[in-house]
Amino acid sequence: MQLKIKREANLRIYALAIAALLSGCGGQKVSEAFDMASAAEEAVEQQQSRADEAESKIEDLEQRLELQELEIATLHAAISDLEGRVSSVEITVQR
Description:
Blueprint: H1 2-22, H2 27-94
């Protein structure tokens, strides 16, 4: 995903530079095109960084969820065990 985004940003840089050259613009327009493309590339890198952070947070939350599910399963097993013991005690008391 990162390589695709970087490749697209690089293609934009070259496309802007070529467009500026083909339109007969002077060196200043080409420089402006490179500056714009560079700013776009920086924005893409920032977005990728945010996406990586979000993905890391999602993975962390998924791990927490798995732990909580395991704790719930353990509690259910403990409850079932206690219910079995209570039934056993009730039967013993009734006799």
